Amino acid sequence: MTQNFRWGLIGPGNIATRFAESLNFVEGTSLYAVASRDIKRATKFGEKFGARQCYQNYQALCEDPHVDAIYIATPHRFHFEQAHTCLTAKKPVLCEKPFTVNAREHQILVDLATQNQVFMMEAMWTLFLPTYRQIHHWLKEETIGDTKLLQSSFGFVAQRNPVGRLFNHELAGGTLLDMGVYNVAISQWLLKKPLKDVLAHAYIGATGVDETISVSMNFGDGVFSQFFSSFHSQLPNNFIVNGSKGSICIGKDFWGAEKVQLKIGNNIETLSFPFRGRGFEYEIEHAIACIQEEKTESNIMSHEATQSNMKIMDSIRQQIGLRYCFE
Questions:
Q1: Most exposed among 2, 181, 236, 309, judged by the fewest C-beta atoms under 10 Å?
Q2: Are residues 120 and 46 in the same domain?
Q3: Dist. CA 38–CA 56, nearest whole Å
């Protein structure tokens, strides 16, 4: 890995903090620049993590010749515009999930990244964790036989704040894009087969976002993935992969699991994979490797994978009658 790979960062919030902390566990990389519409936030964040430059203008960050790639960690609604600015400037992009609000926006960015021959990837950090490498090995070896049924949940009791990110319609709030994106993406990653159809039900709250959602995804041949996401209840927050010979249980908090359990008959094996740092270091290493190899996309979180996830979530939102005011 080339020494001193320099990251720029847009959106110095909680998720960005975890990203910046994870950089300390990746050899030869650092946070070089931070951008925010609030220059005080950018400066405070930059000072905390040793950034050399702070910008109030995203275009200025993109034009900085010392920035090797840009990480976007703003609310969902703004991902498209900011990623478009980065890609137009031919800066590689690692963007938090969901990459965009809908599939149409994402396809525009794919076309732009392809045209400019620049790397772009959705930051689906979960798929790069050691735990999921082990799960991939078990599935490849058919340890649990044929995969038949996936069951998962992501829910907690959220503090009701109508202007906060979770409940704010204008910021593309709701459980699906914020949490259910994990259930959708991991289901597709595990099964690696096209979706036949999807059935969704939801409770839309006073602010016009989905506060609880129930989804059943039909992959054909008797293979299903079912999940709940909710702001109303503390759910198990695990992910169970049921096969013809046994099962795999990921959790608790499956999206960032450091333990996984394999059950074959009466035999139960639990394996632990503690993070080297804060957890984002694995996707960061992968993104850097792709950029240095002059790739335009990841073989793990490809453009096609993100686009497929976005189309599924578009279909779910259409069924539950959720269209954002800015779409």
A1: 2
A2: yes
A3: 6
